[in-house]
Amino acid sequence: MTGVATGKLRVYIVLAGLGLLGALAFGRPELAALAAPFALFAALGLAFMSPVEIRALSELDLERQLEERHVNLLMEVAANRAVEHLELVLDLDEGLVAEAPNPILIHLSPGERRELEVPIRCARWGTYEVGNVVWRVRDPFGLFAYEGTLASRHWLKVYPHGETLQRLLRPLETQAFSGNQVARNRGEGIEFADLRPFTYGDRVRRVNWRATARRNEPWVNETHPERNSDIVIFLDTFAEARRADLGTLDIAVRAAASLAALYLREKDRVGLVSFGGVLNWLTVTSGTTQLYRIVDSLLDAEILLSYAWKDLDVIPPRTLPPRALVFAFSPLLDDRAVGSLLDLRARGFDLAVIELSPYSFVPEGDSELEQLAYRLWRLQRDALRTKYASLGVPIVEWREGVPMEAVVEEVRAFRRHARVVRA
Amino acid sequence: MLAAAALAAYPASQSLDLQWAALVFAAAGVLVFAAGLVFRSAGVLGLGLAAIGADYAILFVAEGGALDRYTPIYAAGLMLVAELGFWSIESRIPAWSEPAVAEWRLARIAGACIGAGVLAALALVAAATASGTGGLALESLGVVAVLGSLVLITVLVGRRSVG
Q1: Which residues have CB under 8 Å from B102's CB, separation 6+?
Q2: Beta strands in B24-113 (DSSP E)
């Protein structure tokens, strides 16, 4: 706590002094009568000055919440003496918005415990420290001000809200474990694949009796097995385009969390590579625990400026299992990320690049030169996109406001119609 | 501002020998006080209050003679102007305020003004009933006492700032 004398105290002392000196100089008691109240006011203020101690207990009703939902912070404020004028500011990080008045001015009677309830809207995903309060008290005479902070240290995790998808994008190849995805190869399963003549070892239940009757020899059904797949979410955290309320990283994190939840629900194994100033990864695993691991890891995702050159070699090999579908979210603003994605493709990974369009975050500029530079920049990006497409990498520009469903559908369409061109 | 202007107008509106000086101090007092409010400066505000007080002092310098019976009212008014002025420039943040805060504040200002009026009246009564001849020695002692008190208060203020 700190306490300081206000300017008012100094002014009152000076006024009292001037008045008293004037009274002596001119021999007029009226001036002393004018000065006396200021002198008495300052003297009373000094006599009754006592440091104040503010205590606050707080409680957060939820430790985890989704974006755009609310949590309630309950605070109980008390002081060691009566406080006429208590300013309280709930210090909230950017991304949390108090729905109740903040700051507030309250009056505390002696021994009073004031309960305050502050609904907080979780505006942006992230991990936040909630409950820190900054307070300021003025003494009854307004001559001293005391300030202090109260740390509460409640941690609130705000998870990104999920996007919905009707159909997930499927990898070109499946893994060995059972899952919900119909594999391309043939084996034990439910989905009909083909017919073939009976061979030694085939089960009788697989015999297709109609085909057998038509051909006068036993034929059996072949089926596709249901397998799981490996999905790696690749997050480019080298750079982002951002304005006050939204950035490309926000879009990427929301999409990544949604995809992770949806794929894990389908019994697939999901991993995460956050590739940027700080490398962060999670090897592919399935289950609800993995979902929490991924989302917690996404909450820590941030853009950290780094000049160190990084490529795929810094990523542990286990995080990129063979035959995995790599879902890359990138604004394609940093050469290191662009190069690494090309490297992934060169290594034969099934790659889908979601380009988080930075256009809505970058103004075109007013001058002719700025507009020319903007057009050149767009042309360069178009050329980069063409380069990816020519390598057989589905690349989709995700503009602000477009649902993820449309983006995934575009990737699916690319994969359906793309043909490798061989020179 | 209205209260400050009313206080400044009282001596300036009297027919005095030094009316021009009263007008100058009145105008300067009100303008400086307004500047203090605009720039939210306690020092400038204090200068304005001092100028308004000096305007009142001219009334006695020019007129001399009997005690001014309106001094308690003037003292209460000056306290009101000072309190409202410092309330106006108080560092604050846009905040929701519960009604009790403003009620307490207004009650305290009213109490301060009434107290100032009563104290000024008591000071005048004491001055009117005091007997004594005064003189250079006594006046010098008074000056030393005032200055000593100011220094003492200033030292106390400095020491009692809580760190």
Answers
A1: none
A2: 96-97
Task: Please state the pTM of the whole predicted model.
Answer: 0.67
Distance (Å, whole) CA A356 – CA A8: 56
Kindly report whether the peptide bond that precedes residue A103 is cis, defined as omega within 30 degrees of 0: yes
Check: CB of residue A107 under 8 Å from CB of residue B100: yes
Which ipTM value was assigned to this complex? Answer: 0.81
Chain A, nearest residue to B126 by Cα? A29
Q: Do A2 and B163 lie within an 8 Å CB cutoff?
A: yes
Do residues A139 and A8 lie in contact, with contact meaning Cβ atoms separated by under 8 Å?
A: no
The answer to whether B108 and A84 are in contact (CB under 8 A) is yes
Q: How far apart are CA B8 and CA B26, in angstroms?
A: 5
CA–CA gap between residue A224 and residue A219 (Å, rounded): 17
C-alpha span between A138 and A4 (Å, rounded): 10
Whole-angstrom distance, CA of residue B94 vs CA of residue A103: 7
| CB within 8 Å of A253: residues ≥ 6 apart | A125, A160, A235, A298, A299, A301
Residue B134 backbone phi and psi in degrees, to 5: 75, -140
Answer whether residue B30 shows pLDDT above 60: yes
| Nearest chain A Cα distance for residue B57, angstroms | 7
Distance CA B122, CA A324 (A): 93
Candidate from A46-50, A140-144, A417-421, B142-146 with smallest mean pLDDT: A417-421
B50/A15 CB distance under 8 A: yes
A77: its two tokens: 């404020």
Distance (Å, whole) CA B131 – CA B129 = 6
Residues of B in contact with A102 (CB under 8 A): 95-96
Instruction: Give the residue among A295, A317, A326 at the shortest CA–CA distance from A231.
Output: A326
Q: Scan for tokens 């009263």, then name that residue.
A: B22
In contact, A65 and A72? CB cutoff 8 Å? no
Q: Which residues of B touch A31 (CB under 8 A)?
A: 53, 56-57, 60
Contact A146, A111 (CB under 8 A): no
